[in-house]
Input
Amino acid sequence: MKRMRRRTPLRAKTQLRRSKPLRRTPSMAATDAQRTAVAGRVCIVCGTDRRIDPAHLISRAARGCGAAACCVPLCRPHHRAYDRGALDLLPYLEPV
Output
């Protein structure tokens, strides 16, 4: 059996450097209209009025709409649980 020789070393001896700095992409953050729509409201899960964030019912990454009517007020711990998929909002939603 013939052994193959490696033509290039596995690791570079000098540290790799970027030719361009990293660019931040625009986030899928809530708009000012969405923040205004949930301002002064309480979390639909626990009823607290502290650290309220607008949570998109259908995430914008999944092509959800950016309208203020598509957001519900959630406190930050429940918003994070919802984003992780650990919280189902269906029992807390009611028609207006």
Summary: The mean pLDDT is 79. The chain has two helices and two strands.
